[in-house]
Amino acid sequence: MRAAFSLMALLSLALPAAADEMWDTQFGRMLWETDIGDTAVFVLDSPDQPRLRAFIQGLALDVAGGRGAYSGFWTIEGGEQDCPMQMTDPMGTKTNAWGQLQITFVGTGFPSDWAGLSGSCFETPDQPISGVAVTGQ
Question: What is the C-alpha separation between 63 and 112, in angstroms, rounded?
Fold first, then answer.
C-alpha cells in the first residue's frame, strides 16, 4: 500500500509539469496542451493564424525525464494547404493541412529544448523545426 501511494504521489508531481511546458518556435509559442494515451498534444494557438497541433507519439510516457527522439504528425485547423486526403486528428479536427514530424530533445533536464524536421502531407520530413524551452513563466 505504501509503495502504491508513493508511486501515485510521484506521478501526481510529474504529470502537471508536462502540461506547463512551453517552447518558443519559429511559428510562435507552443504549449503542451494535453495527453491522449501515450501521445502528447502540443498546440500553437495564435489569434493571427490558424490553430496548429502536434501529436507526439510516446512522449506522454516520458514526463519524468529520459526524453529522446519521437515521431508524430501535425494538423492545422482551417489551414490553406491541400493534402490529397483529409485527416481527422485525435481532437476531432478535420483538415487537409497536415504532415509528419520528428523531434529530438537536446537536453536531459526539465524543461528541455528540442529540434527536428517536419514535412507536408505524405512527404518525408525535411523542413527544420525547433523549440526553445520557456522558463520562469
Answer: 12
Q: How far is CA 137 from CA 20, 44, 78, 133, in A?
A: 9, 17, 30, 11
- pLDDT bin (cut points 50, 70, 90) of residue 127 is very high
List, for residues 68-107, the tens digit of each pLDDT value: 899 999 999 886 778 999 999 999 989 999 999 999 999 8
Single pTM value for the model: 0.81
Tell which residue, 29, 31, 13, has the closest CA to residue 21: 31
Distance between CA atoms of residues 60 and 34, nearest Å: 9
Query: Reduced to 3 states, what is the DSSP secondary structure of residue 76?
Result: strand
For cell 497541433, what's the residue?
53
The Cβ of residue 22 has, within 10 Å, a number of other Cβ atoms equal to: 17
Q: How far apart are CA 80 and CA 4, in angstroms?
A: 49
> What's the DSSP call for residue 62?
G
Torsion of CA 66, 90, 24, 107, to 10 degrees: 10
SS3 label, residue 43:
strand
